Amino acid sequence: MMQSSLFSGVAKLALTVLICLSFLQAVTARADFINGDQLRLYCTSKNPNDEAVCFVYIAGAVDAFTTIDLMGEKASGTKRQFCLPDGISPDQLKDTTMTWLARPEANLDLAATLLIWGQSRKLVAVDRRPLISRS
Asked: Are 61 and 93 in contact (CB under 8 A)?
């Protein structure tokens, strides 16, 4: 009897685990990427939280692009594409991004990161001033 009771308890536990796992698999994973129109809405909102999302999203994208550039330059001598001027402020990045998004040909259905990439490449010519001073 004890074995039967033990087996029954283990079977119930296993069944419970399987049911829980099936619920976890039913939840679709999704990343919260935003498109250009959503970024524009965050950046034009009067809500301080939305403004923070705007600044962090733009700064994060620019940081990712410049980091990839620096890694490519260091690892394989790839020419840099993103050479922002020293001292560029978050407000300047936001302003240039908003100007880029306001262009008639801007497709705001694209991922905001792609639109930021486009404006960042046009912000400053690569041959002018590197982001990090080399000593």
From this structure: no
With bands split at pLDDT 50, 70 and 90, how would you rate the model's confidence at 69?
confident
- The SS3 of residue 27 is coil
Q: Where are the domains of the chain?
A: 36-123
Query: Measured between alpha carbons, how far is 135 from 123 in angstroms, rounded to an integer?
Result: 24
Residue labelled with tokens 């302003």: 95
State the CATH class of domain 36-123. Answer: mainly alpha
Which residue, chain included where needed, has tokens 């939840």?
Answer: 27
Backbone angles phi, psi at 34, to 5 degrees: -120, 155
Reference 59, options 96, 109, 110; nearest CA is: 96
Tell me the sheet residues that pair with 35.
Answer: 111
- Taking the CA atoms of 53, 54, 58 and 63 in sequence, report the sign of the dihedral they define: negative
Cα angle value 102/107/81 (rounded, 5°): 85
Where is pLDDT greater, at 104 or 24?
Answer: 104
